[in-house]
Design a protein that fits this description.
- With about 260 residues, the chain is α+β, with helices and mostly antiparallel strands.
- The protein is about 25% helix and about 30% strand.
- It has helices spanning about 5-10, 15-25, 115-125, 145-150, 190-195, 225-235, 240-260; strands spanning about 1-5, 30, 35, 40, 50, 55, 65-70, 100, 110-115, 130-140, 155, 160, 165-170, 175-180, 200-210, 210-215, 220-225.
- The strands form 4 sheets. Strands 7, 8, 9, 10, 13, 14, 15, 16 and 17 form a 9-stranded mixed sheet that branches. A 4-stranded antiparallel sheet has the order 3-2-5-6.
- Strand 2 and strand 3 form a beta hairpin.
- Helix 1 packs across helix 2 (about 15-25) and helix 6 packs antiparallel against helix 7.
- The radius of gyration is 22 Å and the shape is elongated.
- The two termini are about 25 Å apart.
- It binds uracil (URA).
- The site of uracil (URA) has 8 residues, from helix 5.
Length: about 260
């Protein structure tokens, strides 16, 4: 929900102050009802706002979604090899949005997409140390030694990885199922980390990123982020207090997801 004068300003009608004057003059209506007082809030998705009888829409409406990307889609806007891209999965969204960062062709799971360039920059900038969690199903010998190596850092492409959180969470037809949390975004990082300790990743799913939790979004489908998720993301990189807040929100969201 946003204030009516902000809605008008976002639609390019006037500045916020100028919009207040237009509201007072009775030139603005919400769902057919003329509004003259300040403080009215509108739902950008549902409400129909008119100015002088003509419907208006904010031009810079930001869209934030999480997609559960299946294997077999490239995380680009177009592919020169003619493969399907993640854009094919969000055709029903009327606004042009872009993937935030990448997931490999053969990786599935949480992919954030938006048209908010500032947020994309903040999430993908290494200085913000955004945490990403993956569930990896791997073959090979996983023991305490391999886990400690992965946690402390292994050398891939000649450079040691930063400390990671690594836990065994089960067994699968392939061998071991692990959860791994990293905050770097190097090319095929998780696969290469496991390779460096003699294991092969057979299935890789991103389950969390930047405090967002994939939860029950079906494979190949997307959902809009909630207002509290978007607010949490917008605080990234703003202060120490905000990263505390991000963690708090993360736990709140996790609880909510569990209860769904
Ligand atoms: N690590 C990988 O190996 N692949 C991904 O898609 C993401 C992280």
């Amino acid at each position: 929900m946003i204030r009516l004068q902000k809605y008008l300003a976002d639609a390019g009608i006037a500045s916020r102050r100028g919009s207040e004057a237009l509201i007072k003059a009775g030139r603005v209506a919400v769902n057919g009802e003329t509004i003259r007082e300040m403080g009215v809030k509108v739902d950008e998705e549902q409400d129909i706002v008119t100015f002088d009888g003509r419907e208006i829409r904010p031009q810079n409406k930001m869209v934030y979604i999480m997609l559960n990307k299946p294997i077999g889609y490239v995380t680009t806007v177009s592919d020169d090899k003619g493969r399907e891209t993640v854009m094919d999965l969000v055709r029903d969204i009327p606004v042009r949005i872009y993937p935030v960062g990448r997931l490999d062709y053969d990786t599935e799971g949480l992919l954030l997409m938006t048209n908010d360039g500032d947020l994309t920059y903040k999430i993908t900038h290494p200085k913000n140390n955004i945490e990403k969690t993956y569930v990896a199903e791997v073959t090979g010998d996983i023991n305490m030694n391999t886990i400690l190596q992965l946690r402390h850092g292994v050398v891939i492409d000649g450079v040691k990885t930063s400390p990671a959180k690594v836990e065994v969470i089960g067994a699968t037809q392939f061998g071991t199922k692990l959860e791994i949390t990293i905050h770097e975004g190097r090319n095929r990082q998780v696969r290469k980390m496991f390779e460096s300790v003699g294991c092969i990743v057979k299935r890789l799913t991103r389950t969390r990123e930047a405090g967002l939790i994939l939860g029950h979004v079906p494979l190949g489908r997307w959902r809009k982020l909630t207002e509290s998720e978007v607010n949490m993301l917008k605080k990234i990189g703003s202060s120490k207090k905000s990263s505390k807040e991000t963690r708090k929100n993360y736990h709140k969201n996790k609880k909510q997801t569990k209860n769904n």
